[in-house]
Amino acid sequence: MSLLPQFGFFELVVVAIIALVVVGPRDLPKLMRMAGRMAGQARKMAGEFRAAFDQMAREADMEEMRQEIESLKRNNPVVDAKRSIEDAVKPVEKMVREESNEMRDAMSKAGANAGETTPEPEAAPEASDAKPAPSPERAE
Fold first, then answer.
1. Per-residue pLDDT for 44 more than 70?
2. How far is CA 125 from CA 10, 33, 121, 122, in A?
3. How far is the C-alpha of 104 from the C-alpha of 106, rounded, in Å?
4. d(CA 106, CA 110)
5. For the chain, give me the number of helices (H) and strands (E)?
6. For residues 19 and 28, is the Cβ–Cβ distance under 8 A?
7. Is residue 63 within 8 Å of 55, Cβ to Cβ?
8. What region, left, alpha or beta, does residue 65 occupy, with left being phi > 0 and alpha being psi -120 to 50 degrees?
9. Which whole-number Å values give the CA distances from 91 to 53, 60, 85, 88, 140, in the listed order?
10. In terms of Cα–Cα distance, which of 107, 102, 103 is closest to 117?
């Protein structure tokens, strides 16, 4: 059921005859021009309303997409896996550091007890100075 009135050909003829009688033939073109302008303005306002409504719908869709992206960022399984691996590695790293510190302390105490200083490791020879090792020859 439509709330808008429906005009057929017969209704338009009746309206035209009434307009001709009420307004008169001299002012009828001015009236029609004014009615056309009003119809154009009504269409323009309807188009603006439709465009605003479409814009609101697009913004709502974009906001929904933003929320979905944020939820994906929060619930990312790769990040969760990385976090769990880092959490599992932290105690091992801590133990290795503690052992390293204990060994360093023990070596420095041993060196102090022996009256020696701990020798610093020699620098590895540079690649340009290094000579390739001779390959063993096969005796057959």
1. yes
2. 107, 99, 12, 9
3. 5
4. 6
5. 3, 0
6. yes
7. no
8. alpha
9. 57, 47, 11, 7, 54
10. 107
Question: What is the reported pTM?
Answer: 0.39
Residue with tokens 């307004």: 23
Report the C-alpha gap between 87 and 85 in whole angstroms: 5
Angstrom CA distances, 93 to 31, 59, 137, stand at 90, 48, 45
The whole-angstrom separation of Cα 69 and Cα 32 is 55
For residues 11-39, average pLDDT: 89
Whether pLDDT at 97 is above 50 = yes
CA gap 120, 104 in Å, rounded: 12
The one-letter code for the residue type at 134 is P
Q: What percent of the chain has pLDDT over 70?
A: 79
Place of tokens 């390739």: 132
Which long-range CB contacts under 8 A does 58-62 form with residues at least 24 apart?
Answer: none
E strands of 1-140, at which residues?
Answer: none
Tokens of 8: 């057929």
